[in-house]
Amino acid sequence: MQYQHLTVLGVVVLPLFFRTVPLAAQDYSSAEISDVYFTDDALDIDELQEMIDTYRQNPLVWDNCRIKDLKALPLNDRLKSTLINLKQNRKKYSDWKQLATDANLAAAEVAAIRSFIVLSRSSVATGQILSALSLKSRDGETTLGKNLQRVRYHSRQNWFAGTVLESDADEPDVWDYRNFSLRSPKIHDRFELLGGAFRLNWGQGLLFASNLMSGRGTDVTGNLSSGRQGFKNYLGADENRYLFGVAGQFYLRPLNVYSFISHHKLDASVDENIVTNLRSDGIHISAAQIEAKDALSEMLGGFGLTYDWNGGTVGVLGYGAGYSLPIRVIENRQNIGGLTVFHGVENDGISISGEGAFLSNHGLGLIENIGLDLEKFAMIAGWRYFSPQFFAPLGSPFKKFSGMPNNESGFYTGLKVKLPRRWWWSGYVDFYREIESPVAGEMPQNGLELLTGANRQTASGNLIEAWYKHTKSYTAGANDRQLKLHIRQNYCPNLSLEIRAVAHWNAQTPISDGGQAIGFIGRGVLPDKTRLTVGITHCFVTAGDLGIYFYEPGLPTQFNLNSLTGTGQRYFLIISRAIGSACEIAGAIRWRSTWSVSAEHSSNEFSGDLQLVFDL
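Now predict its structure.
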């Protein structure tokens, strides 16, 4: 397949999308949320799923949440600005229909918002059982794919309990990973206790973050936002990067106290009784992966304080960690501790926030941001520094390079403008450099990353957006470019179509020979309220460094971000239907045909996914 074929296909179908019709009552909530992210890391999709699940277990309450909490949500500019305007006008709601009417929100937008916000604390017991199973057949061989069972329950008294069982494809154990999480109600509105698995969100995420997603988003001012402080229940599928033990939150207003202790076994590669690598993929298939499972024991505890007032928050936290084996990246130490201080102040649209962390191995991390947010204009600038000794496996600050320890400095500036007729323009520039090269004899990397784009979403849910990303490495002299286009059109209340296209090229490979993908998606609702989603994706990727991560619809509330290489097509059909008022069954069938660009080799893969959701 050549680039010209993709272009012709797009030109033939593209004019069909420029009709104006009423809103389609579809649930695009997964697309509404994931489209915020322009990421190069396919693993981020797991953390995106975990972010949604964390909010489901610890939702914002509309009457009690603050504007800074709304700014940290992974939603597009239109939705966040709409919610902020309602909050600034002190609007209170007991019914989602009224909120949707006042804010002129589409059904998909309401579904996305409800992933993070509840209108009030419910005194009714709620719960959910999710069961998901997948099978794959490739070149005649059928294997069990990912197997996930998750149960969560909120009692009428606001107790929370949940458990998760999970295994990845080809793992020998049926339930390779098991976990649970508990939370008490607020006792006398002052004290809250958590047990089992949890995460901590603190400051700018230098040492502790409730979500470890590294992807940078098209919300250029939200990239530097921090979420709510405190502990969050954890029922995710990441088998290593969380705390397990007991945590307490004391709300003394305006002073809040946080304490925790955790004992957790981590996956690690060990050589001569020294940890050479902390593994985070959670895969246990090969002999080396099975040997690394739970090879390292971690004991960790901490104590923190925050002070809140109408205009901001300050906080301080200290922690200490001990390990059963020396770890190479911290100079073969078995112990490490640290102290972190953060601040966040906001007044009349001007915000100043930052955090500084100091470790016992002389590691240093600093972040300082300043922003201006007006009704039709917002900008932010941020500076960061992480020394080569900065070791924080449970942190997720804004940075360019992955891996541990952190080792970079940078300066980021972002700007977004609200234009007439519901258009938004956004862009950022990020200058970055390594402090030291992790590879002996090589120069430290330095360069810049630029993102710019525009989008428009109408009241009827129609959408058009285009983004351009350019990454330039001054050290290697490389230029990497990506272009993303997304169009969605609702034809009638029960039918809509989408086009998604991505191009990836660099200085050595022109756009006509680079990686390309284009997808067409149709959604419909049958008279018996069965929802259908069908689609096809064509891809042409000439080299591994031009690979494309491409969004495709998945099962309800699930996310698919596929890594595309080679040349081929992908076809999918997704069916979901409610059974009564408390159960939904959904299934997905996918077929993929791929052949290598450099060799005469092809492969065919068929997969099926089944998901059952029971509301308790």
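The first strand starts at residue 60 and ends at 61.
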